[in-house]
């Protein structure tokens, strides 16, 4: 039985169950929701399996007044929307043909045949509306023991879809205990070159999920030792720094951040490394800019070390400064965790001050527009910053007059 079945009892799921029952659709919940419900973890996505054809599922869903979306009729998938919550409903399938990336499937009414095409035993669990589990391959015991184990021959399963190498590592990072399954790791090592066939988007998705794990250090080290990382990101091998970053995040109560952890693994990124990561992982412009920012905070970091947080944060994105300071702590032992804690607390209440003078004020004082005005305005702003933004407009105008008279 499921440890947590609250997700079955909620209103949205109850409406879906009623719709399927009214349409005479046999069904069971499957995959991640059942796995997480078994382990007492939060359930997010809820998937449903059924021997019914997708057209019959759509008719039952729409007849009950729910929205049905034909998200993948070729593969038997319909998305039902109940109370704004999506449920993916898929007809039982078996693989007819695979090429290492895509599969040709045929529908079936055999629950075991459907389970056999799934990747890991803990992902091939089904549950009925009462929370009773159907388990064909020992996934319940594996899930409870923290064993991520392939269904069938690991080598054959990886040849069907090379992404399973990274999924194997990712699931162990989130659900595994102890060493990775020896048979699965051996197959991943032998077939690591298949990763080269995968798109950067698919690799990035799995790598970021690994780096979001509470403690990805052991899995990352295993990926390096197995030769997997040589086909993913060759530059990301500073595992000791990843371990220190993970400990620092925990101390600062910061959630795992894949880009921050990637910067720990690679070291402060150069322009060449940013370009390489953007190409390999197909980073968005925003993520690439964030990754690059880890190398561009030297002056603010010096201020952070002195506790001058306001001056460090001025005209700087607060979270990026904090992340760069964390990377500095990982690489060279400064700033201290105590200083970083104080910085994080300071950021929560930080409102960037506004320099009270403009070029118009200088022009009224007799300064002509041009380079001299820009230089003087910059000097006044620097003076104001060094006073920790304390001087008001009148004080800044007084400082302007003093400089003009000097």
Summarize the structure.
With 406 residues, this protein is of the alpha+beta class. 53% of the residues lie in helices and 11% in strands. The protein is elongated.
Please give a structural write-up.
A 7-stranded mixed sheet has the order 3-4-5-2-1-8-9. It has a two-stranded antiparallel ribbon with strand order 6-7. It has 4 domains: 1-143, 2-Layer Sandwich (Beta Polymerase, domain 2), CATH 3.30.460.10; 146-232, cca-adding enzyme, domain 2; 244-352, no CATH class; 359-405, no CATH class. The protein is 53% helix and 11% strand. The model has no long low-confidence stretch (mean pLDDT 93). With 406 residues, the protein is of the alpha+beta class.
Count of helices? Answer: 22
Distance between the termini: 83 Å
Radius of gyration: 28 Å
Structural class: alpha+beta
Helix content: 40-55%
Q: Superfamily at the CATH H level of the largest domain?
A: Beta Polymerase, domain 2
User: Could you say how many structural domains there are in total?
Assistant: 4
Inertia-based shape: elongated
Biggest sheet: strands, sense, closure?
A: 7 strands, mixed
What is the beta-strand fraction? 5-15%
Broad CATH class of the largest domain: Alpha Beta
List unreliable stretches of 5+ residues: none
User: Which CATH architecture of the largest domain?
Assistant: 2-Layer Sandwich
Oligomer description? single chain
Strand count: 9
CATH topology category name of the largest domain = Beta Polymerase, domain 2
In spatial order, strands of the major sheet run 3-4-5-2-1-8-9
Mean pLDDT: 93
Short key terms for the protein model shown above:
single chain; 406 residues; alpha+beta; Beta Polymerase, domain 2; cca-adding enzyme, domain 2; 4 domains; two-stranded antiparallel sheet; 9 strands
């Amino acid at each position: 039985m499921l440890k947590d079945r609250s997700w079955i009892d909620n209103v949205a799921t109850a409406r879906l169950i009623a719709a399927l029952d009214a349409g005479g659709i046999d069904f069971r919940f499957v995959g991640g929701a059942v796995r997480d419900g078994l382990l007492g973890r939060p359930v997010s996505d809820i998937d449903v399996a059924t021997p019914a054809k997708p057209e019959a599922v759509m008719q039952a869903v729409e007849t009950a007044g729910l929205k049905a979306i034909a998200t993948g009729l070729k593969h038997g998938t319909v998305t039902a929307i109940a109370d704004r919550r999506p449920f993916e409903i898929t007809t039982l399938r078996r693989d007819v043909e695979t090429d290492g990336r895509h599969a040709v499937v045929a529908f079936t009414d055999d629950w075991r045949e459907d389970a056999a095409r799934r990747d890991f035993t803990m992902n091939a669990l089904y549950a009925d509306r009462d929370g009773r589990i159907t388990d064909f391959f020992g996934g319940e015991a594996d899930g409870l023991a923290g064993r991520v184990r392939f269904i069938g021959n690991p080598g054959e399963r990886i040849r069907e879809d090379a992404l399973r190498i990274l999924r194997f590592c990712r699931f162990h990072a989130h659900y595994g205990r102890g060493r990775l399954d020896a048979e699965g790791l051996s197959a991943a090592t032998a077939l690591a070159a298949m990763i080269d066939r995968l798109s950067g988007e698919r690799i990035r998705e799995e790598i970021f999920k690994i780096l979001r794990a509470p403690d990805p250090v052991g899995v990352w080290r295993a990926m390096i030792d197995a030769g997997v990382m040589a086909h993913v990101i060759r530059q990301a091998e500073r595992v000791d720094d990843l371990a220190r970053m993970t400990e620092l995040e925990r101390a600062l109560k910061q959630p795992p951040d894949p880009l921050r952890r990637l910067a720990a693994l690679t070291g402060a990124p150069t322009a060449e490394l940013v370009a390489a990561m953007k190409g390999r992982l197909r980073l968005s412009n925003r993520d690439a800019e964030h990754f690059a920012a880890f190398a561009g905070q030297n002056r603010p970091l010096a201020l952070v070390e002195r506790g001058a947080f306001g001056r460090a944060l001025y005209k700087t994105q607060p979270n990026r400064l904090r992340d760069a300071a964390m990377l500095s702590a990982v690489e060279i032992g400064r700033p201290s965790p105590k200083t970083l804690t104080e910085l994080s607390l300071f950021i929560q209440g930080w409102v960037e001050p506004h320099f009270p003078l403009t070029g118009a004020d200088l022009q009224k004082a007799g300064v002509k527009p041009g380079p001299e005005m820009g230089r003087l305005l910059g000097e006044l702003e620097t003076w104001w910053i060094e006073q920790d933004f304390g001087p008001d407009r009148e004080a800044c105008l007084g400082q302007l007059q003093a400089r003009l008279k000097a």
